[in-house]
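Ticket #4471: structure output looks truncated?

Reporter: J.K.
Steps to reproduce: submitted the chain below (208 residues) through the standard prediction queue, then opened the result file.
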Amino acid sequence: DRCKDQIQRLRELNQKKIEEITVHHLVFSDKFICAKNEVLVTAAAEGISFGMWINLSKNPRNKEMTFPGLKIEFPKSVAMSSIAIRILTLSEKPYNEEYLFLDKMIQCEFIQLPTPPKRIGTMTLRQSPQTNSLTRVYYPLRNISTAQPPLNFTVTVEDRSFLQNDTDVAVVLLKEDGTVSTESITNVTPDYEKGELQFSSMGIGTFA
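Returned output as attached by the reporter:
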């Protein structure tokens, strides 16, 4: 029990740090902006990698974004939205009676951007990082009248042995209650030569 409590505390500390990093980069996005008028942040530690793209340009030509070990392709509706895409790659795998998870978990989230900072003379007014809260955005995006295609993911697989032709490979979406779903996931395509796994999804969340 003590071990479980310590592991849970570590998870909570990790999550708190990730939230703080996310909020800081969202609120101070103007200080991290690059030539393409966007922000791309990546970091890694043992067992976890973090990536976040902050869409400040709303450029309809943006069709994909590459993070460490993962590429996501998205439609114009996403490129034109005031959102950030946050990707967490976790080596920890949960237990499930139906599936044996062989590779990392991938958490994909869309986050609404805060109110942009305002410059008044030499001062910059911005939302306080202490009071700013993250607002998740779901996919398909709401208030979009046109049809929205699935998001396409390409994942670099560390252990490519299960990508061989005689292995039945599936991608599932982990729900908050611990159950899994495959309804929104299609086009699961393993590529043993490249060490990649491709799939499409009409939803976002935690994939395994």
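Triage note (M.O.): checked the attachment and the full token line is present. Helices lie at 2-27, 29-32, 76-79.
Status: closed, working as intended.
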